[in-house]
Amino acid sequence: MGTLYSRCIGTLISKGKYIFPLDSDDMILDKDILNHLYSKANKRFDIIKFKTINVWENKNYTNKKFLRETRGNSKKSGPIYQPQLGDEAAHHYIIWGKFIKSDIYKKSIYTYGKKRYSYFITSMEDGIIYFIIRQFARSYISIEKYGILHIKNLRSVTNNMKEIKRYEYLIKYIEALFEFSRNTFKAKRPVISYLIELSKGKNLEQALSIHKIYILLKNIIKNVLFSKYISNEYKSKIKKIFKSKIQF
């Protein structure tokens, strides 16, 4: 049924108090990480971020040359609470490397809706759900403890997706950011950044020749132009960028 559908159904039938996402390209570095995270949560935190290591497949991950650490949520130390947590959600969309309270995760899935997550989305699906999770979570903390080695799969769906299909998923992701973001300028602004980056794509015109992709993007731009949470300056910028590509 697809990655997103499977992930959501698995979560909805789970019985635990917390969810620990672990994909097929991840491996646990510390056998005690779950006990440590559970004790650290202590009913105080909805999300705990821990340190991970990224490495490309077929590389020797003992060689530091090929390692890239992912650290905390931001440069600020200590817990983060709403509304800041929700307003910064669009910038931190990766779900792995997190320990998430189960009821928050399930609430996010129901908010996204069964109809929407049954669209067989196979790329960036974790970003959509985690973005909503960040809206509902009340508390977040980042800890300096390694938990996962993430092996970047050269044959993954994301790395081998055709560019036109990638446009479709990116546009759907931008749509979700807009629809589920908090009603503040800070939360809506990343939508503008993604749209600007999208406009620079070398095969965008080819992608827009596909009717469903064109309509998706047109609807997003329409929502942006009518949003009271986006300044006239940014609206004018979006109009200028897309005036030769989209009929408003």
Description:
The structure is a single chain. The protein is an alpha+beta fold. The chain folds into two domains: about 5-160, Spore Coat Polysaccharide Biosynthesis Protein SpsA, Chain A (Alpha-Beta Complex), CATH 3.90.550.10; about 160-240. Helices cover about 50% and strands about 15% of the residues. Residues about 60-65 and about 70-75 have low confidence and may be disordered.
Q: How many structural domains does the protein architecture include?
A: 2
User: What is the number of helical segments per DSSP (H or I, 4+ residues)?
Assistant: 12
* Distance from first to last alpha carbon: 35 Å
Secondary structure tally: strands? 7
What is the topology?
Layout: H1 3-12, E1 18-19, E2 26-28, H2 33-41, E3 47-56, E4 68-70, E5 80-81, H3 84-87, E6 98-101, H4 102-112, H5 114-117, H6 125-136, E7 139-152, H7 157-160, H8 163-180, H9 185-199, H10 204-208, H11 211-226, H12 232-242
Parallel strand pairs: 3-7
Antiparallel strand pairs: 1-6, 2-7, 3-4, 3-6, 5-7
Summarize the structure in short.
The protein has 248 residues and is an alpha+beta fold.
Looking at this protein, list some descriptive labels.
single chain, alpha+beta, 7 strands, 15% strand
